[in-house]
Structure formats: C-alpha cells, structure tokens
Inverse folding.
C-alpha cells in the first residue's frame, strides 16, 4: 500500500524552519527542522514513516537548491 505525504512551509528563518504536513493535503501535523544541523522533530512526538519520508524530501531539496522548499510531496 502506498502513501502520499504533502508539506507546506509556514515559517522559515531564524533558528527553525516549520512545515505543516499530512496525508493528502490534511496538514494536521507540524515538522520543525533546525537549518544548522538538519535535525527534525514533530510536535506530536511521533516521528513515524510519514514524518521521515517528508523530512528526507525536504532535506534533499535543500541540498539541491540551498533553500528550503515552499511545498513538497512524497509519494510511494
């Protein structure tokens, strides 16, 4: 069974970059990334496969462009 996780950046700059994310545009969770260390955490404390997948896509985009993307999607 596949999954589609989407994220949209809602805050960037300073000490963290924040994304709202969820399955198929529900945006019911929040992911925070430290731009210095690229350490990621979720507000609800459940760093599951959806959080891991979308974090990997965000970090990959950042490594490619040097900027955190405004919107990202992971589908499998």
């Amino acid at each position: 069974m596949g999954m589609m996780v989407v994220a949209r950046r809602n805050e960037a700059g300073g000490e963290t970059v924040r994304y709202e994310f969820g399955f198929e545009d529900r945006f019911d969770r929040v992911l925070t990334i430290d731009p210095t260390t690229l350490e990621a955490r979720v507000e609800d404390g459940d760093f599951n496969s959806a959080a891991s997948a979308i974090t990997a896509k965000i970090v990959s985009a950042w490594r490619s462009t040097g900027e955190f993307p405004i919107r990202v999607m992971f589908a499998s």
